[in-house]
Each structure stands twice: as C-alpha cells, then as structure tokens.
Amino acid sequence: MTIEQTAVLIQDVKSPLILKSVGVPEIGPKEILVQNKAIGLNPIDWKSKKYNFAIHSLPWINGRESSGIVVKTGVDVKEIKEGDNVILVSTSYRDLRTSTFQNYSVIDYRLAIKLPSFLSFEEGATIGVGLITSAIVFYDSFKVDFNSTFQDKAILIWGASTVVGLYLIQIAKIHGLRVLGVASSGYEEYLKERGVDVFVDKDNALDNIKTEARKEQILFAVDCVGEQTSYSVLQILENHRHSKFVGIVKTPKVQTHVEVNPVSIKRFHEDVPFGSRLIEIISKYLNYKQVNPTKVKVFNGLDSIPEALTRLEKEGAKAEKYVISIV
User: Fold this and answer.
1) Domain 4-127+293-325 has CATH 3.90.180.10
2) pLDDT of residue 1
3) Which of 11, 135, 145, 273 has its CA 20 to 30 A from that of 245?
C-alpha cells in the first residue's frame, strides 16, 4: 500500500491549517490501520488551536473520531480483519497516529467498534466521541451497572441537544430513567422524539426550571455546556440531596451536598479491559438499534475541514454532527 498520505496540519497556532503530504502511520501488534472514509468534528478541534491548548508538539494533527475501512492488521489482532468497516475514537491525544484529520489512522483493535451494516460511514462518524463520553459518564463516573434498571428516577441533562446530550438521552432510556432535558426551545420536538420526557427551555428563569425539576426524583445530572450552566445545575440539585453530578466541560468550585464526579475519558484507552467492555456494550446498543446516530451535516474532502471548523465555531452544531466525507 501507499506510504504517503494527506493530513490537515497545525504548523503554528496563529497560522491557517494546511494540507500536507506525510507518512502513513506504522502499526503495532495489537493495532489496525484504518482508511478514514468519514471524519467527525468536535469543538476541541477549533478551540485547541484558537486557545493554544492540547497541542503537545508541532506540526500537530487534530481529529478525535472517524469511520472507515481496515486496510492492515497487526500480528496479534483478532476478530477484526482487513476489509471490515469500523468506527474509531481517539482518546490517546498525544499519539498522532490515532488522530483522524488524515487519510489513515491507527487504533488498538480492542477499542474499535464494528460499523453496523445498516449505517453509513457518515452516520458512523457521529458516534465515537459522543457515545464513548456518554458511556463513560454512566458506567465510570456514575458507576451504573450495565444491567441496572431504574424505576421512577430521572436524569437532568443541560445541553440535551448537544451530541453528548443526545447519546446520554438514549443510554438513560435503556436503563429506564426519565429524562428532563434542558435546551433551546427549537429542539423540543426532536428531543422528545429521542426520548426526553420533560423538556425545559434553557431561557426560562432558573426558578421555573427548578419548579419542573422538583416534580422529578433526579438521581443523576449532567451539564454538557460549560461552567456557568454547571453552576445552574448544581443550584437545581439543592432539592435532590442524593443526586450525582458530572460537568462535561467544566465544573465550578463551589460547596455543594451533591456528589460531583469527574469524567475520565482517557480511561478508555489506558484501561483496555474497561474500554473493551464499553465497546462490547456499545456495539450491542448499536446493533439492536437501542442507540441511533445523530443528524449529520456533511462536508466533502479533507480540504473542507478548515471551512467546516470555522462554521462549527461561528454557527455551532444544531442538534447535529459536522462530518467530513472522504471519497
């Protein structure tokens, strides 16, 4: 196979992204090489360059998720073969071989999700980061047992229309939880279709949101937006003294009776048995259509990444995932 590929590089944080020919990554015994056919974009892909964080060397390659075709397997790879379609999610940020803003990416085969035959590459590229993050929130941060079912309990999700929020909703319904979703009013119908039981407009006064929350036995709460909204969620939880909270973006340092839990995304690749178990559960959810991909906004070709990231920054994703399709 070819030894050269195209990648989207950060040469300098103050300079525009460039496309450049680079070498195809080498793989280890338990790794697979994936030809990316669709790449998912995330806010960190533009934020890290704009605010100069999570860039550990230059030139740098961003990109945390994709879907594509396995073109090479290591000598110790089992269950996955060349020609299989897979979903890739990179949480080992310092290893540029796993970055996805390039034609080929590497992943440990035990952490690859087989793409169901009924999903397109573009749909597959919406799944990685959002669904893995949601699963880590439930099964690591909240310590929910994979087989648990809750009755008359609820989860509050602020930012329910974000990609992580959309996957949190679906996992919550699998475990029998009622879902109180907070988002912009224009998403009410779509979020109720996804499984939200009680929708609350984020622009309502906080006291009004608290009133709706008091009607539920909130066991879990997740903020998917930022520090200020995390603070609002913690205020809402004042009347739910046995609740557990996770802030995906940032949690304010305040005194609270609520159990505040961290999100350890890196555990996915650092603890391979745990990561593999997540893959097993997620694969079941996908194959039985208990979890479905988000809506997709498609851009074509690696050279469209700079424009797509600019639009993601300026416009934001509207209950959808920005995806780069590579022919």
Assistant:
1) yes
2) 67
3) 273
